[in-house]
Every structure is written in C-alpha cells, then in structure tokens.
Design brief:
Layout (H helix, E strand, L loop, with lengths): L2 H12 L5 E7 L6 H8 L3 E3 L7 H4 L3 E6 L4 H10 L5 E6 L3 H9 L3 E3 L5 E3 L5 H7 L5 H8 L2 E7 L5 E8 L2 E8 L5
Antiparallel strand pairs: 1-3, 1-4, 2-3, 4-7, 5-6, 7-8, 8-9
Length: about 180
Amino acid sequence: MNTEALAQAITDHLFGEDANVYAILDGASVPDLLQNLATHQPDYECLYRGELKPDLAHVAPYLVCLERDADFTNWVIEKGWGQHWGIFVATDADLRALRRHFRTFLIVYNSDGKPLYFRYYDPRVLRTYLPTCNAEELKTMFGPVASYMLEDQAPANLRRFQLTSGALQQQTKPLSQES
C-alpha cells in the first residue's frame, strides 16, 4: 500500500465517528513539533502546566485538535504513523475539558511513593496498559473519551479501544485497501 493510500485509510478511520478528533503528541518523539504547531496553528494545549523552559517545552506532550484534511493533520498522519508520535482520541469534549482529563494521568507513583512520569500517550504504552486495567481504572482512563485510536505493533493496522458497558473492547483494523 502506498503512503498516500495508507494516510487516507488512517484518516478515514480517525474521522469515521461523529466526534471531535484529538491527538496527544509526544514532543520527545516528534521532530519539529513546536515549529509545526507554530506554522500550522491548530488549536492545542501543552499538557504540562505553566511557563516551560525551552528544553522541557520541546519534550512535553501536547493535546492537539485535528481537523480532517488540514495540513497539520496530514503531516501527523503521513510522517508520524508507525513512529510512536502519539495517540488519537474521539470525543465530544472540548480542548479545555480534555486537557484537564489527560493531565491527571501524567504522574504516577511507584511502590516507594516516588513520582514518575507516565507516558500513556506513547502508543506502545497505551496498547499494553489499557488491557491490564480493571473496570474502575478503565472508567477513569476513558472519562469523556469515546475511543482511543493508535498504531498497532504492525503499523499496517490501527488499534481502537472503546469502553462498552464497563468492559474494554479492542479492535484491530487493517489499513490495507482490501479491508
């Protein structure tokens, strides 16, 4: 499958629901993220609070509102798919409410009470973590999120997680033209 057809298939899956689509992008993984945010000017918020020093701003996670066929959205899909740049969510929530929700997961504590950054916005982390959650943890993780969408281990597939009657539903969707 060529790059253009793959990008179109991803776009069709991301925007297939009647919901707002957001990405949480990892500044540590995305080359030139801040430059592209400034150039394309999508609606976005850093998940870290306050004025950040430049070195931290470059590696921080950013919540970005995506629009179908927008230049920024196309850049993220075409360049970032398969590169662990971040995760996508479908939701009815707005940017501000979603930022509040996702900020609550940034820090976790180990068994000694030491705070650690939780990089749930890395697709390799989220696709491993969500299936281990109990019903209460899933309810918390989903909050206003209708579905999480991310690259699968094989980037030719999209993984979708949804919460249905308190249970986690996983779907692996092939992105090939034959699907």
